[in-house]
């Protein structure tokens, strides 16, 4: 499988991975480069102002609507909605960086956006200091959550190609290799 060729022609791309790994920044770049709608589960689905989590039923209804659109990049790792998202995806890009890279990414994000709302987050949700639970999520991601991702991909998207990106360099290389010439 040549991920660059697949990405160059994909209409619907799902980007998943551990928090802090760079998936949101990468998703926005993919969307911009390939002129796809950028959809963020954090911004568009999960969170309401004040870090209030939207009702799960309402989240699923929003996701159901979003996946029916023709051309998108969806950034978000909620495995509980893979049943809705994977069957509509042409390609899954799994940002699977080492935990130290994800933790460094998280701390860079916090230092840049602490107290303000970052671009792909819902209004009224300023970047907080990470708590023990969030740090534990990142620390244990590969052991606890990655196997669930694999199981859900096998169940709901067995024919959807998955490209695993293990570094920011691999993400950058994929963007360069999949780029479309700009219209003149």
Task: Give keywords.
184 residues; alpha/beta; Rossmann fold; five-stranded parallel sheet; two-stranded antiparallel ribbon; 9 helices; P-loop_NTPase; kinase activity; transferase; Cytidylate_Kinase-2
Describe this structure as you would to a colleague:
- The chain is of the alpha/beta class.
- It has a single domain, classed as Rossmann fold.
- Helix content is 49%, strand content 15%.
- The protein contains 9 helices and 7 strands; from the N terminus they run αβαβαββαβαβαααβα.
- The strands form 2 sheets. A 5-stranded parallel β-sheet has the order 2-5-1-6-7. Strands 3-4 form a two-stranded antiparallel ribbon.
- β3 (47-48) and β4 (52-53) form a beta hairpin.
- α1 crosses α9.
- The two termini are 31 Å apart.
- The mean pLDDT is 95.
């Amino acid at each position: 499988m040549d991920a660059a060729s697949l990405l160059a022609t994909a209409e619907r791309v799902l980007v998943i991975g551990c928090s802090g790994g760079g998936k949101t920044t990468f998703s926005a770049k993919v969307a911009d480069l390939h002129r796809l709608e950028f959809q963020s589960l954090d911004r568009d689905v999960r969170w309401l102002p004040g870090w209030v989590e939207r009702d799960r039923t309402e989240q699923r209804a929003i996701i159901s609507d979003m996946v029916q659109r023709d051309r998108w990049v969806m950034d978000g790792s909620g495995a509980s909605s893979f049943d809705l998202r994977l069957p509509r995806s042409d390609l899954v890009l799994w940002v699977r960086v080492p935990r130290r890279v994800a933790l460094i990414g998280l701390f860079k994000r916090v230092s840049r956006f602490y107290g303000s709302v970052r671009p792909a987050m819902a209004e009224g949700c300023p970047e907080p200091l990470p708590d023990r639970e969030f740090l534990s999520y990142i620390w244990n991601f590969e052991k606890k959550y990655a196997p669930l991702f694999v199981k859900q991909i096998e169940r709901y998207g067995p024919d959807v190609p998955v490209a695993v990106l293990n570094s920011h360099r691999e993400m950058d290389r994929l963007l360069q290799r999949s780029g479309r010439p700009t219209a003149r």
